[in-house]
Design brief:
The chain has two domains: 191 residues, 2-Layer Sandwich (Nucleotidyltransferase, domain 5); 64 residues, no CATH class. The chain is globular, with a radius of gyration of 20 Å. It contains ten helices and seven strands. It has a seven-stranded mixed beta sheet. A hairpin with a 5-residue loop joins strand 3 and strand 4. Helices cover 43% and strands 16% of the residues. Helix 5 packs across helix 6 and helix 9 packs across helix 10. It is an alpha/beta fold.
Amino acid sequence: MGTYIQHIGTNAFVFDLEYVGHTTTLTDCYIWDIGIVHLHTGKTLELTIRPEVDTLPKPFSPEFKELSADYLTERHALPFKQAWLQVLNFVGHRAILIAHNAFRADKPMLEIETKRHGIKMPLNWFFFDSLIYARKVLPKLPSYSLRDLHMHLFQTDIVNQHTALPDAIALTNILRCIGLHTVNGPAYTPYSTPLQAVKWLGPSCERKILEAGIRSVEQLIIVLVNAYTDTCVGIPVSAFVRDYIIHEFDIKEGNASSIAFSLASNWIPGV
C-alpha cells in the first residue's frame, strides 16, 4: 500500500541494483549487484550476486559492465538467498528504501527476484522514487538520469557508474545536495502498484487519491469496479470512472477524462 511521506527518519536507506538479462524485460533479468547506504549513519553494504543462469547475458549497452565467471568470483559473488539474509540484517524489517526510478525498475526487480527464490519482502518496507522527487525539486532539466543529475550538481561524472554501491553513494550525495530535510512524496510497499503507473495520473492527482485513502492501483480498481457494479447505471465504464474521479477526488475534468480512459483501457478487467 502507498502513503505520502513528509520527511524521512533514521530508518531510510538509499540503494541501487544492477541486473542483466537476455532482454530488457524485467522478468528476464537477474540481479548481480546490490549497493545500500544508510542515510543516518553513512554505513554501506555491497553484495555481488551470482545469477542463476546457464549463460551470463551480454550487457544491455557498452556502458554497462560485461559479467564473467572470473569477475564474479573476484568480487566474491554469493547466491541470492545468502545475500538476501545480509540485506535483511542491514536494513531491518521496517525501512524507507530510496532508489532512482524505483517504481519502474528497482522495486519491481526486487519483487521478481525475491519471488523467483521463494522469498517475501517485509511489508513494512516503503519504496520512494528519487527520480520523481528530482523532477519536482529541479524542474525543467533536460535529463534526470542519475549521471546527468550528478553532472549538473557537481560537474563531475560518477566514478565506477553502473556498479551498485558507487551509484547508491552518488544518489545519496545528490539527495543531500538538494535537501534531505525537504524530501517528501509518495512511497509504496512491496507488491503494490504505484498510482503513477496509470498513464496521465501525475503527482498532484496521485496525492489527492492517496489522501482519500486509496493506496495503490489495485485498491483503486477494486473501489471503482465495486462502485460501478453497485450503481448499475448502464453508462460506459470510462464515463462512470471520469465522474467518480471528479467527485470523489476533486480532480479536474480534463485530467479525470484522460485518467479514466487509461484505467478503462488498460487496468479494469472485462472492459
